[in-house]
Amino acid sequence: MTVLQALAVLNLVTIALAFAELRPSTFIIAANLALVCLSMQDIASFGRPPAQSFVPESVFAAESIQCAIWVLAIPSVIAFVTALIPYSQRTPSSEFPKLPKQLLWGAYIYFGAYTLSMKTIFETSYAASDQIVFNLNLGGANALIFSIFIYEIARRSMQRPERSMLYFVTVTLVVAATQLFKGATGLAAGNLITASFLIFSSKPKWTRAVLLASTILASTLAAYTVRGVRTQVSDIGSAAVSELYAQTISSGDGPWASGPLSRLQSVGNAVQSATHVLECVSLYNSGISREWRSTYAPIVYTFEPSFLLNVFDLTRPKEAAWELFEYFVHGGGINTFGEFYWNGGFLCVVVMSGLTLWFAYLCDTRFRDDYRWLMLQCCFAPGLLMGLGYGFAQVSRGFFNGLIAILAIALLNKRVRVRLVPTRPANSRMSKTNEAAAP
């Protein structure tokens, strides 16, 4: 067994621990690391992947692969350690606050408008020029709206666990209409997997395990299928699905042969993500560093969202994925752990991986104790499935969105409470004085 295969096994153990302990953020991070480790092993064995033929051969040098092994080993070990840290759930001091009606109805209106703003993949090819009916791109606010909706569904399911399946079906229908049927898979799968952990958290242990396993498998297969057929299902219909699964189960020829695991790595972008790690290693080791810019740039992105850039003629720091494109042609995104290395070598990998996984641990272990942690979990975990392959700016967005949502709930609920407090007439004190003085 090679080191990379051992790391993949370690991450599988972490996945099992996270599944058993209801830790969705750790679960998603470990799943991502397992796939990337397996893809890196394939690269170490067979060389440059055919799908990455536009990347220079020098990127896949043996010394870069050895360095990348450490880049992947650091977060893998930290994830395993955090999964072993026990936590005793505390009884919440009060019921979790309802989502203010203004936010909830705003989310419903947005879902309806967003559904109408794009054609489905059954009508036109994914990302085709005619897919957009009207532009409703809100950037990071899109993920925030879905997160507050999942918070409200999770809150209700914790109070009424007997309705948990109905709540999960509700989330599934919303995600299907607004994301899956439009061809979006990363955030869709993240929303469904996170929702399943949260919604079924109050179920008995074995019932919960069966429901979780079933819904996670179904969500993964749905995202896998949509991603595999979204560019051709509008032309050839159900034949696209048949063709996808025929390729999935075939063995193929050559060292980079297809097969279920290889197809999962390919469709899940693990091969591309492993290549991104090697590109980041190549850049940093050649003296080109981002000098920790990725660690503080997300603060700027939060206060300068993409949908306001043209409105106010703003220019914000370049994201790591776009800067990587200046050095290498690639299919988009950047592996988060590779990005850490590009920013500051192994020190940055240790510090930022540690902080990311510690925050994941806090969200995972405290979301049933306090509504603020539940909201942070709803904002952080769904974006991990996509965000880990698109850079730290996408991963950290969940943290900032969570803070924004918590502040909004606090302000709106406080406003409602103030409005409900009965007011005393201005002359009430004088009336009481006159009553006391009367004979």
Question: What does this molecule look like?
Answer:
By secondary structure, this protein is mainly α. It is built from 18 helices and no strands. Helix 3 crosses helix 12 and helix 6 packs antiparallel against helix 7. The N and C termini lie far apart (99 Å). The C terminus is likely disordered.
Return the average pLDDT rounded to an integer.
85
Radius of gyration: 24 Å
* Low-confidence sequence ranges: 418-426, 428-439
Number of strands: 0
Order of helices and strands: HHHHHHHHHHHHHHHHHH
Strand count, sense and barrel status of the largest sheet are:
none
The secondary structure category is mainly alpha
- Report how far apart the termini are: 99 Å
User: Which shape, going by the Cα principal axes?
Assistant: globular
Percent of residues in helices = 55-70%
How much of the sequence lies in strands comes to under 5%
Brief sketch in words of this structure:
With 439 residues, the chain is mainly alpha-helical. The protein is 68% helix and 0% strand.
